[in-house]
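FW: tagging you since you asked about this chain on Friday. Here's the raw sequence from the shared folder, copied in full. Didn't touch anything.
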Amino acid sequence: MPSVTRAVDRKAGNAIVRRAIRHGLVPQFKSGVPLVEQTLETRWALHVLAVMSMDGKADIGAVRDVLAQTPDL
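HL: got it, structure written out here
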């Protein structure tokens, strides 16, 4: 049963990454590189998008506002 949950989590994670790339939120994203090795800015943008997408699809404008307000993090 854990493999089913893991596949669902991976699919949701991939969807968030694709959406972030499509909207230009992660210009430094390197395909095939683990998340741990991505830049801090890329990881932060993906994190913000994931958290704001928990109730469905996040408003990209709102995500951009959060990222603009937290450049030092």
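FW: Residues 26 and 53 are 16 Å apart (CA to CA).
HL: agreed, and The chain has a mean pLDDT of 88.
FW: great, closing this out.
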